[in-house]
Amino acid sequence: MTELLSIENLTYRRNLRTILTNLSLTLNDNQIVGLLGANGAGKTTLMRLIAGSAVNYRGSISINGKNTGSERKSMVSFSAQLEGVNENLKLIKIADYFNHVFPDFEMNDFEKLAANLSIDLDQHFISLSKGNRQKFVMAITLAKHAKLYLLDEPFNGIDSMSRKKIVASIIEWKPEDATILISDHHVTDIANLLDAVAIVKDHTVVTQKSADEIREENGQSIETFYESFYEEEGTKND
Amino acid sequence: MTSMTSLISGLFRQRNRNVYLATGISLLVLLVTAGYTLLHGLSLSNIGGDYGVIMTLAMIAMLFILAVQNERVWTHNSYRLIPISDTKLYIGNMIATILSFIYFSVIQIVILIICNIGSYSVFGSISNHELLVLSSGSLMFILSFTFVWVFISMVNLILKSIAAFLPEIRQRLFRVLISLGVVVVVLYIFNTIEGFFGKFALQSHSLNFNGSADINLRISEVFGVGTLYFAVIIVIMSLINIYLLEHWVETKTTTN
């Protein structure tokens, strides 16, 4: 396994609030890693920093040894990359824009993904239901041939059938050497997919472990392991 | 990495949707005007003049529509995540906006010429000097519009940079107060720079129209100085904009 993502001493503040402090994280290639944490823990911010959407931070972030924003952007496919598209456009027009400006976007793969996920590309983006919107986001994200995929709560608010289709697409379309970092606060949705987890709490990554280690050494399921980090807090609150 | 050509053509194609929409609306207004004229038994001889007014309004509207589209690029992931440096993204975005405006202007001028067919010959008797005035004037016209877009970007990017350091509560109130402050400061700086370059321009080109032997050459000289003046200001403001974009301005966040 080769090191793909390396984050060292990352600190990020915004609006007079500390969101991440001294965070370090290392991901190898060819993995599916769960980024777990409560609402507001900083999962989305961490993904934005990795992808290059957020720029004002201290510390270092490198992917495959490259640390400039544009180099990182060329190796990442982030599920939030559809933010800001003209919502009145037809889905095929949006895909055409991505095909035009993102060199790693594969139109043929996108069309196959869209067919697998039963997305009608003649629909307008604005008219999509939440579930179909998520499916379209996944089709666009996975149609990019990236080294690192950042999937920010891909199952948020969608029905179980759509969830199953998205999970199947992730498994089927992930390039062999690529790594997927997938965030969620409903661990059960993604537990079976994961090779490893990183837990975000108190503005930092408090632990990073492989799924096998959790099951064999701790004798716990991923869900129980994750919840143990928040139990103490829950007890205090009670 | 995305090439500059792909970026510009991608953004240009997006903006053209509005170019065609604005052209369609201006043609519709022209049709309504012509219909109204005919219904009242009047002659269509002044339709070219009518379209001149419609075209002016359409171009002002397009200036602001393109400004909005220009600004979206700085704060949305679908643009900022394009694998290209922020400097190239800034330049490419501005070029796409300028090209769209030129494209829109050309379409409008063609419609204006069609409306004026039969009234008078537009280019029939243009001399070389008049052509020089026309081309230097057009260049200054485009640069003055570019200046507006660059200026709007500068105010917006300064505001976005400052907003990151404000507390989340009462953001709207702070933003209004800071917006006013930023506009005043930017205008003050702009006036100082303008005064400096204005003096410089006057010293280097004392413009004297008394001789009128070649007034067209004099006018092109004025346009030339104006063009240079706008170009320098645009470059200075763009350098500030690129710095802000690279170091401080982030995309909007959506919470899940």
UniProtKB/TrEMBL annotation, chain A:
The Gene Ontology terms for molecular function here are:
ATP binding; ATP hydrolysis activity
Record keyword Phosphoprotein present: no
**Signal sequence segment:** none
Superkingdom of origin: Bacteria
Q: Which InterPro entries match?
A: AAA+_ATPase, ABC_transporter-like_ATP-bd, ABC_transporter-like_CS, P-loop_NTPase
For the keyword Membrane, the answer is: no
Residue ranges annotated for the ABC transporter domain, each copy included: 5-227
Record keywords: ATP-binding, Nucleotide-binding
Q: Which PROSITE patterns match?
A: ABC_TRANSPORTER_1 (PS00211), ABC_TRANSPORTER_2 (PS50893)
Protein name stated in the entry: ABC transporter ATPase
Native organism taxonomy? Bacteria, Bacillati, Bacillota, Bacilli, Lactobacillales
